Amino acid sequence: MRTSRTERLLGYAILVLGAVAAVYPFVSILALATSRPGERVSGFAVPTSLYLGNFTRAWTEGAFSWALTSSLVVAVCVVVGTIVLAVPAAYAFAHARGVALAAVFTLMTVGLVMPYEALIIPLYEMFRGWGLLNTWWALILPQIGLSLSFAILWLRTAFRQVPPSLEEAASIDGASRLRTLVSVLVPVVRPAVLTLATLLFLFAWNEFLLALVLVPDERHVQTAPLALSFFAGNRRNNDPAVTAAAAVLVALPVLIAYVFLQRRFISGMLAGAVKE
Q1: Cβ distance 210 to 146 under 8 Å?
Q2: What is the C-alpha to C-alpha distance for residues 209 and 215, in angstroms, rounded to an integer?
Q3: 3-state DSSP of 159-216
Q4: pLDDT digits (tens, 9 = 90+) for 227-250
Q5: Phi, psi values for residue 34, rounded to 5°
Q6: Residue 40: phi, psi to the nearest 5?
Q7: CA distance 22 to 262
Q8: Is pTM beyond 0.90 here?
């Protein structure tokens, strides 16, 4: 399909505007974080000098080493736990036959549209009864449960796109279903698994409400977004540049992870989008 010069220019203009709108908030916060104490940098203003002392103050006063470690532990456990449970479940649903399994899959997808805010109070009462409040388990277990519906739906689609001849060849060679799943199918759907892992990591890293309700009193368990919220609230009337530096510290690991996984992320998102 041929496009005219006007259409190409219009497309480029829309892309540039979208890129500016996406990058501007982070650039604005970064400019404020690198400004000197007392200097107010906002809008499209550029700081007159590069000052990194705000990052040192934010790291020291906010004790973000604990918060970043806690976020990393929670995010990695959520990703690993969700994928370990979702892969066999998605494989089973991809080959499901019969009304009963179809009904189970439909019931499971209800979790995709259920607002998890409605589950906060029941989760709080349940974990209080188990004595798990203010522990990492109070963050890991609910997020695995809440992520399973999306993960199973995502991987079920990936498994359904695998040619049946691969499984038939493995079966002829004497491979069991488990061996076929682990050694044949999982490597084939690896782009979808890696993309899912990236999404789950981003969701788990940025999760705030569960941490606010379930781990409010244990500082060593609090995740980075919750620690940033408390830090910003305590410093509301102080220098905003330090708060902006803290926000950059919290967002930086996610940005680094996305930069390294960007190519895999896009290829996984586009996998199966076009059938030839």
Answers
A1: no
A2: 10
A3: HHCCCHHHHHHHHHCCCCHHHHHHHHHHHHCHHHHHHHHHHHHHHHHHCCHHHHHHCC
A4: 888 888 766 656 788 888 888 888
A5: -100, 10
A6: -105, 110
A7: 16
A8: no
**For each successive 10 residues of the chain (276 residues), what is the average pLDDT?**
78 90 84 77 66 86 86 94 94 83 82 80 90 91 92 90 85 85 88 88 90 85 88 71 87 81 65 52
Residue for token pair 């940025």: 206
